[in-house]
Write a structure and sequence with these properties.
- The protein is mostly helical and 90 residues long.
- It has a single domain, classed as Orthogonal Bundle (Arc Repressor Mutant, subunit A), CATH 1.10.10.
- 58% of the residues lie in helices and 0% in strands.
- The chain is built from 5 helices and no strands.
- The chain starts with 5 loop residues before the first helix and ends in a 16-residue tail after the last helix.
- The structure holds zinc ion (ZN).
- Residues 6, 9, 32, 36, 38-39 line the site of zinc ion.
């Protein structure tokens, strides 16, 4: 089992917190956070400044490309990949 090492998680942490991490790396990072309370705490501290990660953690990771396909289908313009709260679109 080759997961993400804590050291690497610290590198990815900021991007993860910002929601700009590519899906594959984000999946690795989230998998690591799932079994490493220390890193989870680290990232949670980062996300206190950023936002979005807490909503992301409990979710299953969609297949690579899924998110961008959905975004492309829903939005005429490229949307930023960060999740901020829930916005009602009508
Ligand atoms: Zn760790």
């Amino acid at each position: 089992m080759s997961g993400v090492a804590c050291e690497r998680l610290r590198e990815l942490g900021a991007e993860l917190a910002l929601g700009v991490l590519p899906a594959r790396e984000r999946a690795e990072a989230v998998a690591h956070l799932d079994r490493c309370p220390e890193c989870r705490e680290y990232v949670e501290q980062l996300t206190a400044a950023g936002d979005g990660l807490l909503g992301l953690l409990p979710e299953a990771e969609p297949p690579v490309g899924f998110e961008s396909r959905v975004v492309a289908a829903l939005a005429p313009a490229p949307a930023p990949r960060r999740r901020r709260g829930r916005r009602r679109l009508r």
